[in-house]
Specification:
- The chain has 245 residues and is an alpha+beta fold.
- 31% of the residues lie in helices and 16% in strands.
- The chain has eight helices and eight strands, in the order E-H-E-E-E-H-H-H-H-H-H-H-E-E-E-E.
- The strands form three sheets. Strands 1, 2, 3 and 4 form a four-stranded antiparallel sheet that branches. Strands 5-6 form a two-stranded antiparallel ribbon. A two-stranded antiparallel sheet has the order 7-8.
- Strand 3 and strand 4 form a beta hairpin.
- Helix 2 packs across helix 6 and helix 5 packs across helix 6.
- It is globular.
- The protein starts with a strand and ends with a strand.
Length: 245
């Protein structure tokens, strides 16, 4: 596994061999065919390296500019977007969601009125995963919002942490409602463009990239296998970084 290097800073050269060993160990542990890493020092890119293959079958290497599906890491983008709106006084995340999205409904009427924006972000709505609702990828963000009223809660609000993708879909809709922009436009203009990040928001956009990583999954008996299914729009949480998820 020969790493590709895009940028160096002399102050961290001595750490590169250790980073290479760490990358190899982590990739072996997680059975990952390819990876890229960056080191930022004092606000500047000090190192960018790539390891392994972005497409095993085609024998294509990962490069420092390879685009990956980042799935639920995109919740960080969604939460940051909501935090920006909170900081600007355009919302108060301690207030109920219905103050901003009146059509928001949960199966329990009391929970409907009490769940706050912060509860959505902290996975404390009382709603369990119900991932079967969004995994087919055939519902829009607004359609997923409407479905939530039929899904039973398993705990009271703030009684337990329960990971939930649908609540981050609501947070993404909240960003659109208050900013007047699409989730994608807001994320680009307020976050990724300012950070110099090249991002896409659909599987079609990702696959059109000349340097896209093919997604893989671990199979119980066949090991690392390519993911061949396409699930339409990357919802919720919006993935690549579309995952509001």
């Amino acid at each position: 596994m020969t790493p590709l290097t895009e940028a160096y800073d002399a102050s961290i050269v001595e750490f590169v061999p250790e980073l290479d060993r760490l990358a190899a160990d982590v990739m072996a542990d997680w059975k990952v065919p390819g990876a890229a890493l960056a080191v930022v020092q004092d606000g500047k890119l000090a190192l960018a390296k790539a390891y392994g293959q972005r497409d095993v079958e085609a024998n294509l290497p990962v490069t420092p500019t390879t685009q990956f599906l980042i799935c639920s890491i995109t919740k960080s983008f969604t939460a940051t977007g909501v935090a920006l709106l909170h900081d600007e006084g355009r919302l108060d995340w301690t207030k109920p969601v219905r103050d901003y999205i009146p059509e928001f409904r949960l199966h329990d009427p009391v929970a409907t009125e009490r769940v706050t924006v912060r509860d959505l972000l902290c996975h404390q709505s009382g709603l369990p995963r119900h991932d079967w609702v969004h995994i087919p990828g055939d519902r829009s963000a607004s359609e997923l919002l409407g479905v939530m009223r039929y899904l039973e809660l398993s705990r009271d609000i703030r009684a337990a942490w329960q990971y939930n993708n649908l609540c981050y879909n609501v947070a993404g809709l909240l960003i659109e409602r208050l900013s007047g922009q699409s989730y994608e436009a807001f994320t680009r203009t307020r976050l990724t463009d300012r950070l110099g990040m090249k991002v896409s928001f659909t599987l079609d956009d990702l696959e059109a990239s000349a340097d896209a990583a093919r997604p893989y999954m671990m199979h119980a008996t066949r090991g690392c296998r390519p993911c061949v299914s396409r699930s339409g729009p990357s919802l919720p949480g919006r993935s690549t970084p579309r995952s509001r998820t």
